[in-house]
Amino acid sequence: MSSSQNLPISDPPSSATGNTTTWSSTISATPALRAFIAGLTESTRRAFTRRRPWYELIDRTAFSKPESLTDATSRIRKNYNYFRVNYIALLSVVLAFCLLSHPFSLLTIVSLAGAWLLLYIFRAPDQPVVIGGRTFSDREILGILVTLTVFVVFLTSVGSLLMSATLIGVGIICVHGAFRDPEDLFLDDQDVAGAGLLSSFSGAATSAAVADVMARV
C-alpha cells in the first residue's frame, strides 16, 4: 500500500511587493507625515468655522461704486479681512477649474507634488532612494527635484497656466472687494489680526514639514 504525502508549496514573496510594503509602511510611519496630516486637518477645520455665509458675499444690495482709488483699496482690505476664507475657497475653485480643463497640466502637477512628498518630504531619513542600482543622497534628490520643478514651472505651459489662473482668481477677488461696501460687516480684533493670506491654514502642519525638510539639508 503506497501513500503519498502532499508537501505544502508556497510561492516565494515577490521582492517588488516586499519593497512596496516596506516603502508604504515607512512612509506611513514618518512622524512628519502624521504631524502634517493632523495639523492640516485641524487647520482646515478651524478655517471652515471662520467661513462667512455666502449670501453675504453676493448680497446685491451691498454693492456700490467706490468713490476713489483710496476707497476701493480700503474696501478690498476690509472685505478681505472679513471674507478671506471665502476668497481662498474661490481662488481654489478657479485653480481647480483651470487644471481640470487641462488634464496634462493637472497630471504634471500631481506627479511633481507626489515626487516631492514621497521622495523627500515624507521619506524616512533611513530609507534610501535606489534607482537603477544607484543610491541617491538627500542632497542629490533635492537637487533633482528642484531642477525638475524649475523646468516644469518655467519651461512648460504648467507655469503659465497656474499664473493665469491665479491672476484671474485675484482679479475676481479684487473686483468684488472694491465694489462690495463693507459698512455692514463687523470686523473684530481676531479677524484683523489674522489677515494674512495663509493665516487660516498655517500651524503645526507647515512647521512639521519645514522642520523635516531643513533637517535634511
From TrEMBL:
| Membrane topology listed for this record | Multi-pass membrane protein
Q: Which UniProt keywords apply?
A: Membrane, Transmembrane, Transmembrane helix, Transport
According to its UniProt record, where is this protein located? Membrane
InterPro entries tied to this protein: Prenylated_rab_accept_PRA1
Q: Could you confirm whether the keyword Cell division appears in this record?
A: no
**GO CC term (a single one):** endoplasmic reticulum
User: Is Transmembrane helix found in the keyword set?
Assistant: yes
Span-the-membrane segments of this chain are 82-100, 106-122, 142-173
Region of interest called Disordered, as start-end residue ranges on this chain: 1-21
Q: Which GO terms describe its biological process?
A: vesicle-mediated transport
In which family does this protein belong, per the annotation?
Belongs to the PRA1 family.
Q: What does this protein do?
A: May be involved in both secretory and endocytic intracellular trafficking in the endosomal/prevacuolar compartments.
Q: This chain belongs to which protein, by name?
A: PRA1 family protein
